[in-house]
Amino acid sequence: MAKFLVQKSAPLRGEVTISGSKNAVLPIMAATLLTDEPCVIKDVPALRDVEVMCSLLESLGASAERDTDNSTVCITASGDISHEAPFDLVKMMRASILVLGALILRTGRAVIPLPGGCAIGKRPVELHLKGLKALGVVINEEQLARGVVDASADRLTGNTIYLDFPSVGATEVIIMAASLAEGTTILENAAQEPEIVDLANFLNKMGARIKGAGTDTIKIEGVEKLRGVASHHVIPDRIEAGTFMVGAVMTRGCVLIKNVLPDHLKAVIAKLRECGAEITMTDEGMIVRGDRNPINSTDIKTLPYPGFPTDMQSPFMALLTIASGPSVVIETVFENRFMHVGEFNRMGANIKTDGNCAIIPGGKVLQGAQVVATDLRAGAAVVLTGLVAEGTTEVSQIYHVDRGYENFVSKLRDLGANIMRVEE
Ligand code: EPZ
């Protein structure tokens, strides 16, 4: 199994270009099932999850031509499309559920095994199913009891749907299904993440009529047919950007972050400034400095967008382990997203947790250790602590990191980080 070997590094200096957003490209790729015409998606990151989604679409009968040189994927879901997603692919990526709505519209049925819980939580889909039922989809309850979503519908009819929680995946599945339903759908308490806006923009390029994406109420007027897309550039990955911003501050460096949309990072920018970072926007990108002020502590509470993103919780906690005083982190989005605390404590962080609350004492000089990537963001987080810890930090289970960070090692090395990937 591959590992990262990370040594204490000099302050990160230089520039890094952020890749396309994993969490925007995955639903957009799923949406290509809604037409039999070619869809060209650009700025696609070369990630394991993108490969899995390509394989999933191909297993359903679509063609997915990758041109990794210029980060382009052309997907054409023409001809016969299968309604059954293979378990061996679905178990590799929970985001496979994103094809649910599109598959029902395309074939009249979707059979998708649920891969069960994962490190950060049980990841139920009852909100996805509640929305689809409201549009007229029938769910086979016996199959569901056995962990398989078997959903069918001859045609879908628009409706008003309230989401008990602003679930990102449920919002995406519902707006895809509603885009070809008969009549209008109003989705209330919808997720507002930028990735929802990117998906809605892609669907509208296909001929959909979606308004309000990015707010808590989205209106979808169903249309007869959706067409292919000649070109769609995926938004930059705000979580990758946030991860490098934290790295610049933790190592007391100065980094120019290119291909970033600051509006997508307001909560992270505000919190980093509270910690003493200097962040300025320029025509070339965002300059993040950690070399001018001490690193102060701050408190974090993760919330649905536009609140502080749960995906930035572990990378930000890495910073708080070396901040000048105690910090409190409350995780409200996932029920088990503190797996990285044990890894930070192996390095001397001395973090205590009680339920969804973590107390980080701060003021530590971390020691290198053998640690594990417990999810893809936590894997990046322990690399960040490795950059400032004394000695060597060995990170295993780094396949998690490969899922969400394109060229992570080379991007860090270009900034002066002392990190290498070793194959065991
Ligand atoms: C998306 O997951 C992202 N993944 C996650 O990123 C991200 O952490 C999450 O949104 C929150 O921002 C992709 O976009 C591929 P949710 P998703 O449905 O859609 C509960 C990463 O690191 N819930 O908003 O699965 C759920 O259990 C990944 O890139 C229900 O209870 O997130 C969780 O506690 C990790 N019932 C909370 O809502 C449901 O029917 C948020 O889930 C659906 C969700």
Fold and architecture overview:
With 424 residues, the protein is an alpha+beta fold. The chain is built from 15 helices and 23 strands. The chain has helices at residues 22-31, 48-60, 87-90, 100-107, 126-134, 141-145, 168-178, 194-205, 238-250, 266-274, 313-320, 339-346, 376-388, 399-404, 408-414, and strands spanning 2-7, 13-17, 39-42, 63-67, 72-76, 109-113, 138-139, 148-152, 160-162, 184-188, 209-211, 217-221, 229-233, 254-258, 278-281, 286-289, 300-301, 327-330, 352-354, 357-360, 370-372, 392-396, 418-423. Strands 21-22-1-23 form a 4-stranded mixed beta sheet, covered by helices on one side. A 4-stranded mixed beta sheet has the order 2-14-16-15. The longest helix has 13 residues, at 48-60. The radius of gyration is 21 Å and the shape is globular. Residues 22-23, 26, 95, 121, 123-128, 165, 167-170, 191, 310-311, 333-334, 376-377, 404 line the site of ligand EPZ. Ligand EPZ binds next to helix 1, helix 5, helix 7 and helix 13.
Q: In percent, how much strand structure appears in the residues? A: 15-25%
**Structural classification:** alpha+beta
Low-confidence stretches: none
Helix count from the secondary structure assignment: 15
What would you call the shape?
Answer: globular
Number of E strands: 23
Percent helix: 25-40%
Question: What value does the Rg take, in angstroms?
Answer: 21 Å
What small molecules accompany the polymer chains?
Answer: ligand EPZ
Report the end-to-end length measured between terminal Cα atoms.
5 Å
Main sheet properties: 4 strands, mixed
Q: Report mean pLDDT, rounded to a whole number.
A: 96
Q: What is the topology, as strand order, of the major beta sheet?
A: 21-22-1-23
